[in-house]
């Protein structure tokens, strides 16, 4: 194994150190408080936990984005359904109504026209789906906020630990 000028062994790419926290080329004597094994393990545990929380946060943010798109599409379909129903009601011919053979009521015949009937069906089905999509969106948003808060707490604790050791910050 080759050595650097300071007499310490150089890092071997085939045999990396046990810790992912590589302090750099500082000699151990230059640290005011040398890193103990317990502190090193705690830092490694903190890094693993923050990585896990980062992945979970990404999943929750992706779910929140998908739910936002779903709510937007449902709102668009609801609006289109109302527009088609209104348009069909205003400009329909009562003679072509589904209920024309059974009633003479013009308002009922206009509402049961094929165009306004399809619009009403679109709006009704979409209105039935919107609450569950909004609940999914709110749950994903709350879960993402919770994970972001947990990640912030772990990051702050790791920063405090590194500040007390006066160790150069590892690259995140």
Layout: helices, strands, pairs:
Elements: H1 37-90, H2 106-111, H3 114-165
Helix pairs in contact: 1-3
What does this structure look like?
This protein starts with 36 loop residues before the first helix and ends in a 7-residue tail after the last helix. It has a domain at 64-150. With 172 residues, it is an all-alpha fold. It has helices spanning 37-90, 106-111, 114-165. The chain is built from three helices and no strands.
What would the keywords be for this entry?
mainly alpha; 65% helix; 0% strand
Low-confidence stretches: none
User: What about the largest sheet?
Assistant: none
- Spell out the helices and strands N to C: HHH
How helical, in percent, are the residues? 55-70%
Number of helices: 3
Can I get a quick summary?
This protein has about 170 residues and is mainly α. About 65% of the residues lie in helices and about 0% in strands. It contains three helices and no strands.
């Amino acid at each position: 194994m080759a050595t650097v000028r300071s007499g310490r062994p150089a890092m071997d790419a085939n045999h990396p150190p046990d810790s992912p926290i590589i302090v750099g080329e500082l000699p151990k004597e230059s640290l005011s408080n040398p890193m103990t094994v317990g502190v090193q393990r705690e830092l490694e545990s903190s890094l693993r936990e923050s990585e896990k929380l980062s992945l979970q946060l990404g999943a929750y943010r992706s779910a929140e984005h998908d739910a936002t798109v779903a709510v937007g599409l449902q709102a668009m379909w609801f609006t289109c359904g109302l527009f088609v129903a209104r348009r069909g009601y205003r400009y329909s011919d009562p003679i072509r109504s589904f209920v024309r053979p059974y009633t003479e009521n013009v308002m009922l015949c206009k509402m049961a026209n094929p165009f306004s009937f399809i619009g009403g069906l679109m709006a009704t089905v979409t209105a039935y789906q919107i609450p569950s999509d909004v609940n999914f969106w709110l749950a994903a948003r709350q879960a993402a906020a919770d994970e972001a808060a947990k990640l912030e707490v772990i990051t702050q604790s790791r920063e405090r630990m590194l500040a007390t050791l006066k160790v150069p910050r590892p690259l995140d």
